[in-house]
Amino acid sequence: MFFTSNRITNIFIYQYRPTFAGLLIILAMAMSSITQAKPLVVSSTTMITDLVNQIGGESVQSKGLMGPGIDPHYYRATFNDMRLLRRADLVFYNGLGLEGRMSPVFYNLQALKPTYPLGEMLDPNQLLHSDGAIDPHIWLSIPIWLEVAHHVTDKLSYHFPAHQADFQQNFAKLTTKLTTLHQWVLDEIALLPKAQRKLVTAHDAFGYYGQTYGIEVFAIQGLNTEVEFGLAALQRVKDLVVTYQIPAVFAESTLPNRSINALIQGLAAEGYQLKLGGELLSDALAPPGEPGDTYSTMIEHNTRTIIKALR
């Protein structure tokens, strides 16, 4: 059988018309998804990611680099992290040296896209210092974290003005929630006699919490968990525990228990019974579904754990 060129063309079009139509539909869907895509906001720590979730709501796509239980002092960027950062429309990180190994990545990223170190946007007079270094653990004071939330709201509103009203409304709700939580912590700590307000932790992460809520904080390791604790530091804390008759010490979810176990065992050998008061959430939120998987429940968990062990 012979076909004319016109007939061949007609058969070809007839047979492949659904394919062409399908391609057009797929192309249209792709273009629609691009135009309707939410801006991507990438955050370093779980605490900042939670803050972006609370303020950004449904108006942004929020992604975090570090998951629950991750120590930001040690964290190194993965290949997937770099891909995510390249795609990001806006990037938030804590700064103040918290993300030590990630700091060069964020510094270089500032030349390519909006990248903000939230802790470095605060009034320097609000920042604590220890052994000549700035304490980066700003989220453990609710009033300070509310100021950080204000900066997040401003930056989201500036870069994505179409959603400004939503951001402002979400920030107002968050302010009410965290103000209530702040007062609850004050009331709970007030029930603890002043002589018992001594908090011993694995590393020096609770300075802002202690300053805000009237608790004296002692730590075996310094601000940076990359620096191992020494025998002198361990002995110093042992002496403080005995002097103040502290009944309990606390582990941290992002750190091994080596230093805390060494403290407990060392005092036990000297006849002093020191108990483990529980595990605090310092540098990361808890896994989803566990107590402390959001910022507000993190503060609640830490406060309940401290009060229960020291009361």
From TrEMBL:
<dbReference type="InterPro" id="IPR006129">
    <property type="entry name" value="AdhesinB"/>
</dbReference>
<keyword id="KW-0732">Signal</keyword>
<dbReference type="GO" id="GO:0030001">
    <property type="term" value="P:metal ion transport"/>
</dbReference>
<dbReference type="GO" id="GO:0030313">
    <property type="term" value="C:cell envelope"/>
</dbReference>
<keyword id="KW-0813">Transport</keyword>
<dbReference type="GO" id="GO:0046872">
    <property type="term" value="F:metal ion binding"/>
</dbReference>
<comment type="similarity">
    <text>Belongs to the bacterial solute-binding protein 9 family.</text>
</comment>
<dbReference type="InterPro" id="IPR006127">
    <property type="entry name" value="ZnuA-like"/>
</dbReference>
<protein>
    <submittedName>
        <fullName>ABC-type metal ion transporter, periplasmic subunit</fullName>
    </submittedName>
</protein>
<dbReference type="InterPro" id="IPR050492">
    <property type="entry name" value="Bact_metal-bind_prot9"/>
</dbReference>
<dbReference type="GO" id="GO:0007155">
    <property type="term" value="P:cell adhesion"/>
</dbReference>
<keyword id="KW-0479">Metal-binding</keyword>
<dbReference type="Pfam" id="PF01297">
    <property type="entry name" value="ZnuA"/>
</dbReference>
<dbReference type="InterPro" id="IPR006128">
    <property type="entry name" value="Lipoprotein_PsaA-like"/>
</dbReference>
